[in-house]
């Protein structure tokens, strides 16, 4: 397969890699706004068109930051961007615990607030971030479809839903994208959600495609992370599971060194090459990491290396749950 080409998202062809913006506001330790804005501008200059945020990231701060970036662009520069945001996770300041709200009234209010913070007239891609099983999916999709009808949203998405929910929602109103965690580090989506998205013609947006930065040249160690870095609580970085997983990551590093590439580039190239309808959104706050990630798009891995990585990171090989218990609120597939 040739190097990664543009991929379809919300009705337009976009650069195969997007930019996940969450870490610019929360969850990954202290951030520098000036550096984050510089990284956003560099991403746009390097061809990135897909920017992913959510109202819960920094409790609105991330959307406001992205809005500042967008206001600095000329209208023509904004025209080919897909700005994605999400609703549904409700948290108190400084806490990780959350409740899920999918009520139609909340969806309408959340959309208006996101439009204001982003400074846009229409959201390019609007996701239900997490599902409240107490609210019928048809009500959720109906409320979201009303936003499309009103011109406030261009396309709909769902995050961390089951294949059955995706199929049900798509039958009611076209779903442009489904977003779930997916990487060498987390391959659960391959069981049902990925093939269902492919069958339905729904883009699959892969968040955490570098395994919370484990699949990079500088893997995190829980005990050295900032006090407010949520990865300190991730089961996959704790105790025996954490030690085993870092040994597994070392095997990836050996393959990357032999191939003459950074670990992150190899992990992203595997994903791009293996799944032609997947759009990864690696998050970074630094321009150097951004450029390293984008370089993966030009790589073509030998089929033998792709197969070897498949075997090394076979589903179930990585040990531990991918979230602490609180993080599974509203997640339909573990």
Descriptive notes:
The chain is of the alpha/beta class. The protein has one domain: NADP-dependent oxidoreductase domain (TIM Barrel), CATH 3.20.20.100. Strand 9, helix 6 and strand 10 form a beta-alpha-beta unit. The protein is globular and about 55 Å long. The model has no long low-confidence stretch (mean pLDDT 91).
Q: Assign the CATH class.
A: Alpha Beta
Question: What overall form do the CA principal axes indicate?
Answer: globular
The termini sit apart by 31 Å
Category by helix and strand content: alpha/beta
Q: Return the domain count.
A: 1
Mean pLDDT: 91
Task: State the order of secondary-structure elements, H for helix, E for strand.
Answer: EEEHEHHEEEHEHEHEHEHHEHH
Low-confidence stretches: none
Strand order, biggest sheet? 3-4-5-8-9-10-11-12
Question: How is this fold's topology laid out?
Answer:
Layout: E1 7-9, E2 12-14, E3 19-20, H1 33-45, E4 50-52, H2 61-71, H3 75-79, E5 82-87, E6 89-90, E7 99-100, H4 104-118, E8 125-128, H5 137-149, E9 156-159, H6 163-172, E10 177-181, H7 193-200, E11 203-207, H8 239-259, H9 263-274, E12 278-280, H10 287-295, H11 303-312
Parallel strand pairs: 3-4, 4-5, 5-8, 8-9, 9-10, 10-11, 11-12
Antiparallel strand pairs: 1-2, 6-7
Helix pairs in contact: 1-2, 4-5, 5-6, 6-7, 8-9
Looking at this protein, list some descriptive labels.
334 residues, alpha/beta, TIM Barrel, two-stranded antiparallel ribbon, 11 helices, 13% strand
